[in-house]
Write a structure and sequence with these properties.
The chain is an alpha/beta fold. The protein contains 13 helices and 17 strands. About 35% of the residues are buried.
Length: about 475
């Protein structure tokens, strides 16, 4: 089978990078996928959740996963110590699904953590390759050969940062991998059957990772009460009612003044960039804390990019059950954030699953609106009625004529109105048009962009 980099595949072989903190796993990951997907920083323990990505190595498709660093000496702080244990547990779970495991050591003296990890990997010996990193230009290569004393058949001397001998490692990774089960995603997939991309966004510790794990029926994201546990964007996938979803669990976004570490700075940037990769944003809000100014800023970012937005009131099970409480909370959010009055508000409990079905049904409905495209003739018939219902002003300074309109894009949804004098169209009249599009054309719960352009004759006159 010949693989095409422009197509998508399933049943991919899984290759996992492992090692103690700060040996260069994330740098090698980025080198192999040819992008800065994983965060790299000299601080040990930057990667916590397994970070996976489908990629091509020498023309062969596979899934590459970067894991959290294995730490023998646990942190003094109890919460950090618990987190170290969670990282180890998640690494072990990832190893069990691997077809090839790459143990990364650092050139020089083997540490106690390296030795313990080597013993830890003995059950996976038949799937194991060993790469000794940071040997650029032959540096410390002589010492690196001592690693053979631990019973390895072969070592790959590499420099993940500079690319030295990484091609040899790639050949070693591919050697013996079974690609016979890899299948191209079925051709002829219609627009309505496309994968729906969801970005989970919100402040730290609102339950994004718990919700991600609930949706994917996995433990891909590490869950901890310590804010900032998630640092990389963790990808997952699941199916619901014959639909496929891709989910991006992002690091919690704090106010800029509170972001003090380089690691968190990069994490927040990755979270914001996840909006670009998503069709929908689940803005996860702690139901006990309610809507914050930071939540408003996150929602505004998604709104400006035309993404569907659902406000997810998580931890709903922790509130006292009072009659009409849902309506009261929704009304308060609408009052505090009128700009987002179109966005659905769904109470859920990621912990026990309450409300998750309603959340996903709402997501499917919003996606249907995002891909909805209105025929130009239908749009202009509707426009005639809107202009008759609320005619444009007729004053000398405020007069304008709307000649016609068309929908120029979906995902994001954008309409262009061709007008004799765009500068005369007030913001309130644009709002009127936007509301009529929502009410009459089936775009009631998503952002809509309206652009005003000069109509043909007016545009030529303006140029003259």
């Amino acid at each position: 089978m010949k693989f095409d980099p422009d197509k998508h595949y399933r049943n991919l072989p899984v290759v996992v990078l492992v090692g103690r903190p700060n040996v260069g796993k994330s740098t090698l990951f980025n080198r192999l996928v040819h992008t800065r997907r994983a965060i790299t920083d000299p601080t040990p323990g930057v990667t916590r959740d397994p970070v996976g990505m489908d990629t091509f190595i020498q023309g062969k498709p596979l899934r590459l996963i970067d894991t959290g660093g294995f730490k023998l000496e646990k942190a003094a702080d109890e919460s950090l110590r618990i987190l170290d244990v969670l990282v180890q547990e998640r690494t072990l779970e990832t190893l069990k699904q691997a077809d090839r495991i790459i143990l990364i050591l650092e050139a020089g003296e083997i540490t106690r953590e390296d030795e313990e990890f080597i013993q830890f990997l003995r059950p996976f010996q038949n799937r194991l390759l060993v790469a000794v990193n940071k040997t650029e230009g032959g540096r410390r290569e002589q010492d690196a050969w001592n690693c053979l004393s631990y019973g390895f058949d072969r070592l790959f001397m590499i420099s993940a940062e500079h690319g030295d001998h990484v091609t040899d490692l790639e050949e070693g990774i591919l050697r013996g991998l079974d690609f016979s089960q890899v299948r191209e995603q079925e051709a002829g997939v219609t627009h309505l059957q496309e994968t729906i991309g969801i970005a989970l966004l919100g402040k730290p510790n609102t339950g994004k990772s718990t919700l991600s794990n609930r949706l994917t029926a996995s433990r891909s994201s590490i869950v901890s009460d310590m804010p900032g546990t998630t640092r990389d964007v963790v990808e997952g996938a699941f199916h619901y009612k014959n639909r496929t979803f891709k989910i991006l669990d992002t690091p919690g976004i704090r106010r800029r003044t509170k972001v003090t570490e380089n690691i968190e700075y990069y994490s927040v940037n990755r979270a914001i960039k996840a909006i670009d990769q998503a069709d929908l944003v689940f803005l996860v809000i702690d139901a006990q804390e309610g809507l914050s100014d930071q939540d408003k800023k996150i929602a505004a970012l998604a709104h400006d990019q035309g993404r569907g937005i659902i406000m997810v009131l998580n931890k709903w099970d922790t509130l006292p059950q009072v009659k009409n409480q849902v309506q009261a909370v929704q009304d308060r959010i609408r009052f505090l954030f009128a700009k987002m009055e179109y966005a659905p508000i769904i109470p859920v409990s990621a912990k026990d699953g309450t409300g998750v079905d309603k959340l996903l049904d709402t997501a499917v409905r919003l996606y249907g609106q995002l891909i909805r495209h209105i025929d130009t003739s239908l749009l202009n018939r509707a426009l005639e009625g809107w202009l008759e219902e609320y005619p444009p002003p007729i004053g000398p300074q405020t007069r304008f004529k709307i000649k016609y309109a068309l929908q120029v894009s979906d995902k994001p949804v954008k309409f262009v109105f061709f007008v004799s004098r765009p500068q005369a169209v007030s913001a309130s009249y644009v709002s009127y048009l936007r509301n009529k599009i929502r009410q009459d054309l089936g775009f009631s719960q998503i952002p809509i962009t309206i652009e005003l352009r000069y109509s043909g004759k007016a545009a030529r006159k303006e140029k003259e």
